[in-house]
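Q: Hand in one record:
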Amino acid sequence: MPFYVAPEQMMRDKADYARKNIARGRPLVATLYDDGILITAENTSKTLHKISEIYDRIAFAGVGKASEFDALRQNGIMNAEMTGYTYSREDVEARSLANSYAQVIGRVFTHEMKPFEVELLVAELGATAEEDRLYHIFYDGDWADEEHFTVLGGDPDPISERLKGEYRAGWSLQDAVRASVAALAGPDRSLAPDVLEVAVLGRSVGRRAFRRLENAEVAGLLSAGPPPKKSKAAKQAEQSEDGPAEMA
């Protein structure tokens, strides 16, 4: 006879197991910007992509166990291609893909001994900014329609707080990239372009809206821009060193 385990305890153990292993992975940030959706991930691998194209205006991103989220990515591509071939390309929607992912992950979480150690993002580019969608699928099959931005993996709460403090509706790609990288890095370190994976779904890109940004382009976006503003204390210190300012 197997040992009896209360269902509540079993679900708690599975949730703790999945959360612990997902938190060990490198985080990922997705945010809206003026031309579409930006997805930025910390990724040191040159061959394993955490961000990929699913269909014309739909992107996929995953954190956690790479073999598991890559298998889910491939299934999503086949599902989208079959729907587009059977009906029309306009019938392929991120919402239905996110629902399919949530059902698969939830079924494994409930019935299998080991849950999936993944969190997924399905992003869809709309005709206008109001129609852009970010669907966040969790390890237990729950999913949410996020507004403005979302964070997957790592320690999401401080990353979300840093990004929330910088987010502005309709900001440029440069501002979005710089804020996303700063949120991922935190105050105690910096991230070089060669350890980042950055992609966009852009309305100006074309029918296949997914575009992956190369390291040189990311470096340009991070280095460009006006110099940082000086704080009030720094200005007062400079005036005290130079003496009183002359009146015009």
Observations:
- The mean pLDDT is 88.
